[in-house]
Specification:
Blueprint lengths: L2 H26 L1 E3 L11 E3 L4 H27 L4
Antiparallel strand pairs: 1-2
Helix pairs in contact: 1-2
Length: about 80
């Protein structure tokens, strides 16, 4: 296994639990930014409290997940030199 595949695997190992927790929060009607540590993050909102901020945080979390996922796939498929 080359270094690119190792980095892609480690990034996926970090991304998957965060994405699962973000999806669980979304289903409960609350959102926290994935950019910061979830244990210490005080940046939180709920759908009932502020729907515009909730959808913005959810879109940001989705963008982070998609971006990291795409880069993981690209790193995994990168040919060895």
């Amino acid at each position: 296994m080359n270094e690119n595949r190792l980095v892609a695997g480690l990034a996926l190992a970090i991304l998957v639990p965060g994405a699962v927790m973000a999806l669980g929060d979304f289903r409960k009607g609350k959102a926290r930014l994935m950019l910061f540590s979830r244990a210490r993050s005080k940046v939180e909102t709920s759908l009932a409290e502020n729907s515009r901020k909730f959808w913005a945080y959810s879109a940001f979390n989705l963008a982070v997940c998609l971006m990291v996922g795409v880069f993981c796939v690209l790193l995994f498929l990168k040919p060895e030199e």
